[in-house]
Amino acid sequence: MVGLDDEQRALLEALYEGEPIELLDAPADVDPQSTQYDAPGQLEGGLERVGNGEACTIAFLGSRTESDGKANLVGLTAGHCVYPGIKVQHAGINIGKDVATTFANDADLGYFDVADGMASNYVFRSATSRLAITAVASGAPAVGSKVCFSGRTTNAEVCGLVTANDATVAYSSGQVLQHMVEVGATSKAGDSGSPFYAGNTAEGVLSGGAPGIIVFTPIARAASHFGVHPLIAANVVQIRALNSGKCLDVTSNLTTNGTKLQQWTCVFPPKSNQQFALVPIPGKDGVHVVDQHSKKCMDLTAGSHADGTPRQIWSCGNSNNNQWWVPLHGLEPSDYPEGFLFFDTAWKCADISNVSTGNGARVWQWQCFLNPPHANQTFRFFTGRERTGDFRD
Question: In the chain, how many domains are there?
Answer without folding.
Answer: 2
